[in-house]
């Protein structure tokens, strides 16, 4: 379970204090897939970075499985996987296999465990043909597959994806969507931000909408459709932004 209680994050910019997110309250059940929607600059990435322990909230608290994220970050890092859009976090001079082995050490995985897991993920994502090639020459789709493999390498309970299909071709994007479905069957809790409404409709049971740092909706898709008397998520999203509530 993920609990976000009264979280606010301030940034200072040119002698001004700006609230990137304001008073966010969210509860997400274990095994739930949640779509995080908002315009660019709405606060989605800031919220995900706080959940990943990269940023600390200015106010409020966050919990994963009852553990305070920012008071016990070392306990949390072993239980979460994170992939931010456009930031694969891979080393160009290393092969895909070497990259995965490098990150496995941070998760305390043994060499034997790493070898088995890397082979398993290479087969799962169709990476066997380029597993021992340097990442520097990879296409965006190939890099993204390795980055996703890195994200779930240690079999985390909670997975955070920030616009993971942006820039991917159709085949790679469909591979990611099938991955989400399989991770759900494994009982993983997943939050991912996306600008692709069809993707959110297809994969998510619930939605969080953020506008100018404030949460304007949290609940199930069905509840949202009922409230808005529409099943057109793109229309609903734009309408909520205009209304701001």
UniProtKB/TrEMBL annotation:
GO terms for molecular function: ATP binding; ATP hydrolysis activity. Residues 2-237 form the ABC transporter domain. It comes from the Bacteria. The keyword Nucleotide-binding applies. Signal peptide: none annotated. Belongs to the ABC transporter superfamily. Keywords: ATP-binding, Nucleotide-binding, Transport. InterPro entries: AAA+_ATPase, ABC_transporter-like_ATP-bd, ABC_transporter-like_CS, ABC_transporter_ATP-binding, P-loop_NTPase. This is Sodium transport system ATP-binding protein. PROSITE patterns: ABC_TRANSPORTER_1, ABC_TRANSPORTER_2.
